[in-house]
Design goal:
Length: 370
């Protein structure tokens, strides 16, 4: 049986959304770095008129007359900066990967449950790191180290893994940065050895440049997917779900390892039917792909007091449920509080997803649930 996705000429599909910043700020430390020249080339090619070289390394003039004005301006701003030494050291990031390295911090999307809310300081601009050689050097220093994937029977084939999307959506900014293509190409070439790989999650679909790269199957791209009601209501500024699934098929067809980040799942009315339809759509999207390597990571919605405060400032009219009285408290090892769904709800959703993922999408390996 053929599917709608198999009938598409995916190479001819234009990406549905390309983010182009209105303002680009380049710090003095980043101004003369080679990767900055590539970023400027891409931004000018995209039609950005306001490219400013800052006199120093401080990013000034980011705040407007109101919180909403500050937010709107920040979401339209790309800052080209140098990653500080504290950012250059890879950090462990279980259960996703062995280590985290950051190509950028900040995201141009408008997700009303934004994972970055409360964890990044100041207005939500996107900062891309111009000293990309220093950033990627963390792969060299931490290859053959780690315990999440490296040496494990379940995921050891990927070697030492490095997560690129902890603090950004790297595909969402790729058209004006080129950082993701640089990382994939260099890892694919074997520059850092044959036993390392990259991972990133995205809500975007601009994969045309990545398809042509010699990735050597050392990058896993996971597409963040959700029930239609959640995605359409809460994920502003991103590619729509059919476009993400088309991009998933494109990348899998190009030999990439692929994955699903089903997140954040929510027990909305009729959630079983909506998420069932999503799994069926994914099954159609990957049907007939040779040598498919597909994983799934399932993450339930949660929030912290700090993230709730920030999100309500950004999206004061949001319909996102963040009622502490409907949630259970979960404390981190450092004493922080997050609000998760009650145990009964979590158990019901986990059992359903475990069963239905196996039944509707048996090609997918479930890596973790949280």
């Amino acid at each position: 049986m053929t599917t709608a996705y198999q009938d598409l000429d995916l190479t001819a599909i234009s990406p549905t959304r390309l983010w182009v910043p209105k303002h680009v700020m380049i710090t003095r430390a980043a101004a003369d770095l080679p990767h900055t020249a590539e970023i400027i080339r891409r931004c000018e090619g995209a039609g950005v008129d306001d490219i400013r070289f800052m006199p120093g390394n401080a990013l000034t003039g980011l705040r407007g007359e109101s919180d909403r004005e500050t937010y709107a301006s920040a979401k339209n701003t790309l800052a080209v900066v140098v990653a500080p030494p504290s950012t250059l050291k890879p950090q462990p990031i279980p259960p996703s990967a062995d280590w985290r390295i950051d190509l950028a911090k900040g995201c141009p999307a408008h997700c009303q449950y934004c994972y970055l809310a409360g964890s990044l300081q100041g207005p939500p601009i996107t900062r891309v790191y111009a000293n990309i050689d220093d950033v990627l050097n963390g792969i060299s220093t931490h290859a053959d180290r780690g315990s999440v994937t490296r040496g494990t029977p379940e995921r050891g084939v990927e070697g030492t893994t490095f997560e690129l999307s902890c603090y950004t959506d790297p595909l969402g900014i790729e058209s004006v940065t080129g950082s993701l293509a640089a990382a994939i190409s260099r890892v694919g070439s074997g520059e850092f050895g044959n036993d390392v790989s990259l991972r990133f999650t995205t809500k975007f679909d601009d994969v045309g440049e990545l398809v042509a790269l010699d990735h050597a199957r050392r990058t896993r791209v996971r597409f963040s997917v959700n029930a239609a009601e959640v995605a359409n209501r809460f994920e502003g500024g991103t590619a729509r779900m059919p476009a993400r699934l088309a991009a998933l098929r494109t990348m899998a067809s190009a030999g990439y390892r692929v994955g699903l980040t089903i997140a954040p799942i929510m027990p909305i009315p009729g959630w079983q039917e909506q998420y069932g339809a999503l799994l069926d759509d994914v099954s159609d999207a990957v049907a007939g792909i040779a040598d498919l390597d597909l994983t799934a990571e399932i993450i339930t919605h949660r929030f912290t007091p700090a993230s709730k405060e920030v999100l309500l400032g950004w999206y004061p009219r949001t319909k996102l449920e963040m009622d502490e009285d409907l949630r259970s408290q979960k404390r981190s090892k450092f004493g922080g509080i997050k609000y998760v769904y009650p145990k009964q709800t979590m158990t019901e959703m986990r059992e359903w997803f475990t069963d239905e993922l196996q039944r509707r999408l048996p090609a997918a390996r479930l890596l973790y649930w949280t």
